[in-house]
Amino acid sequence: MLNIGGDINSDQGLKKLDEYLAARSYIEGYTPSQSDIVLYGALKNVPTKYSHALRWYNHIKSYQSEKDKLPGVKKSLQDFGVTGSGAGAKTAAKKDDDDDDIDLFGSDDEVDEEADKAREERLKAYAEKKSKKPGPIAKSNVVLDVKPWDDETDMKAMEDRVRSIEMDGLKWGASKLVPLAYGIRKLQIVCVVEDDKVSIEELSEKIEAFEDFVQSVDVAAFQKI
């Protein structure tokens, strides 16, 4: 398990994070989790010299809109050995939240929370009702061209990173290496996506987040199924 052993924003902390992520895509397991979100939130920024940590940081950044839905138990920064400014900021934020909860004169917060909860339940019920309606699921067969930086790029590792991306409605298919020029080859990989669930633009951004391997992503072919 990752143990920063100090301030995650210090050179020593960033170096440990970078070394840990050199052979991993995520903090725990093979998919984004609450552990990634906790450490991402403690970081101020990641210098480019920590390439593995920066690749991970940019990748987790793309999940911020859905961070509460990611799996896993939300651990504390101390569980990862984070102390100093990263853990302090977290503690201070929690203390401020606790202070805000103390309301000697009463407030409308509870009313607002109940209204928000009721609205969320109505939206959830509507979404469930809509999902049960019969109808064909629109899908597309997409061929992506994933271009590496140069002929020294580990193409097997690059493909592994691409296939590590998991999205509801996404299924990876066959792949092959296609020559470009000067000994450089591109990865041509097939995927089937459910149109209502998967945005090709978002998928391309997730692939390009693997900055150590991927230079660019292009759509080579797109066909409705």
TrEMBL record:
InterPro entries the record matches: eEF-1beta-like_sf, EF-1_beta_acid_region_euk, EF1B_bsu/dsu, EF1B_bsu/dsu_GNE, Glutathione-S-Trfase_C_sf, Transl_elong_EF1B/ribsomal_bS6, Transl_elong_EF1B_B/D_CS
UniProt domain Translation elongation factor EF1B beta/delta subunit guanine nucleotide exchange: residue ranges: 139-225
SUPFAM superfamilies the record matches: eEF-1beta-like (SSF54984), GST C-terminal domain-like (SSF47616)
One Pfam family cited in the UniProt record for this chain: EF1_GNE
UniProt region (Disordered), positions on chain: 87-117
Record keywords, A-Z: Elongation factor, Protein biosynthesis
GO molecular function: translation elongation factor activity
Residue span, Elongation factor 1 beta central acidic region eukaryote domain: 104-130
Bias (Acidic residues): 97-115
Gene3D superfamilies named in the record: 1.20.1050.130, 3.30.70.60
Top-rank taxon, per record: Eukaryota
Database matches in CDD domains: EF1B
Keyword Protein biosynthesis assigned: yes
Family, as annotated: Belongs to the EF-1-beta/EF-1-delta family.
PANTHER family noted in UniProt: EF-HAND AND COILED-COIL DOMAIN-CONTAINING FAMILY MEMBER, ELONGATION FACTOR 1-BETA
Protein name listed in UniProt: Elongation factor 1-beta
Record organism: Dermatophagoides pteronyssinus
